């Protein structure tokens, strides 16, 4: 029998929390939390919210939430695209770490599809096999966080954040970037993934 593990994300701008008991079922309910003070006025609310979460080491067979080191938003599979979104949003934000031929990969446990890239460099979740375009190298940084690297024409290039406007809506998407780009540092938050 599968066991459900609740994950609670406080909604910073309201007095509610989102409770996720599975990758697809989330509910919002009031929660009483004590008021907090901020000794560092330059720290954003998102950074405060995530301070207590230490980055884990990505390892095959474990499940992670992959969050931007800079913004606290998480890599989310929503409406067929990989975007950055607030934790606990509508999309899938848990990624199962797998390994093939020494390369890591990240699989969406709901669709069983792998994170990879397309011919334009956009990160996508579209194939059910862990092949070359889904191979990911995770490199730890001395300053903290990790860089996610993909193999492109015999070079490792980082995955980073890029704004894209579609139909008048601007979304933060994940794309292959160059080394001078911002938003290429990621944290891994290990979470339990119930077996189905």
Automatic annotation (TrEMBL):
Record-linked SUPFAM superfamilies: Actin-crosslinking proteins
Stated name of the protein: Uncharacterized protein
Natural source organism: Cochliobolus carbonum (strain 26-R-13) (Maize leaf spot fungus)
């Amino acid at each position: 029998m599968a066991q459900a593990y609740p994950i609670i994300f406080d909604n910073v701008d309201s007095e509610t929390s989102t409770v996720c008991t599975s990758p697809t079922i989330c509910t919002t309910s009031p929660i009483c939390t004590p008021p907090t003070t901020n000794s560092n006025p330059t720290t954003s609310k998102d950074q405060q919210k995530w301070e207590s979460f230490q980055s884990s080491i990505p390892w095959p067979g474990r499940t992670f939430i992959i969050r931007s080191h800079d913004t606290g938003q998480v890599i989310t599979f929503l409406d067929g695209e990989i975007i950055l979104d607030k934790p606990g949003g509508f999309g899938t934000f848990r990624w199962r770490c797998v390994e093939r031929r020494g390369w890591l990969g990240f699989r969406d446990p709901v669709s069983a599809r792998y994170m990879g890239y397309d011919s334009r460099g956009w990160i996508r979740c579209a194939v059910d096999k862990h092949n070359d375009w889904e191979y990911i190298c995770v490199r730890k940084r001395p300053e903290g966080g990790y860089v996610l690297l993909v193999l492109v024409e015999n070079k490792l290039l980082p995955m980073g954040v890029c704004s894209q406007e579609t139909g008048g809506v601007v979304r933060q998407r994940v794309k292959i970037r160059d080394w001078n780009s911002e938003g290429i540092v990621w944290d891994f938050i290990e979470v339990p993934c119930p077996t189905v």
